[in-house]
Write the structure tokens for this entry.
Amino acid sequence: MSEQTRNEVRRHGAAWQFSQFLHGEQGAMVCAARIVESVPDLDSKFYSATQTMDEARHAEMYARFLHEKIGMVYPINDQLQSLLKDTLSDSRWDMPYLGMQVLIEGLALAAFGLLRDTTSKPLPKQLLSYVMQDEARHVAFGRMALRDYYAQLSQAELDEREDFVIQGCYLMRDRLRGHEALENFCIGAEEAYEIAENSPYLHMFRRLLFSRIVPCVKDIGLWSEKLQRAYVDMGVFELGDSNLDELMRQDEELAEELDAQRFAAEESARREEVEAAIAQGAAA
């Protein structure tokens, strides 16, 4: 490929990735609103209402970034659409929590974190850091709510939740390939799929993805032999011992560091403006 075509491939890849972020946030907004409706206690309704507002803000931010900076939007990935459909179709109040706060938010944190830590561009780094600060709070609330509730369920009820988690994890493992973007450059679907499957970036992402989800699933009490075997099959069982609290704390600190840098830069600019005005006044 020429350098111009390579740049265009990169643009399409970024458009595909941020489009999935957008669709995920739109789904999160709908799920959070569903939780407001179905969760039994008032405090959880209040919190889910604030999360609905957060997700709406994230969706607006990603939409603007795609339209104003990248210039194109890709449709929702089939696997993500399937997981969102399963999450929203269940009438039990805890299932949107499980699908959204544990699986989809865990996926989002992994994807956001990988791009935040690898991009050299300041704008997406800032946007992703601030979104991750919100998402870490959402996951923490979901963990607390589900951990308390699942301690009361029968084994049969827990088995149903574990089946949902296993299905969702396999879906997500196969989700972020990005082969759709390659097909726009006269690369056949089978070859594009193979290129994406062998991508070192994708392999790194999968490891990070489960570093968020596996310890969270274990923490809320879903850790039967069946679920453990599924994680062994995926090659991520050992991630159950990851320190999820430490990962979330790091997300918070990175966003706070960006805040400190931004405020310091604004303060410096204001100081220079004042000094320039004083000098101009003295000269007059």
Q: What stands out?
A: The chain has eleven helices and no strands. The first helix runs from residue 3 to 38. The chain has a mean pLDDT of 87.
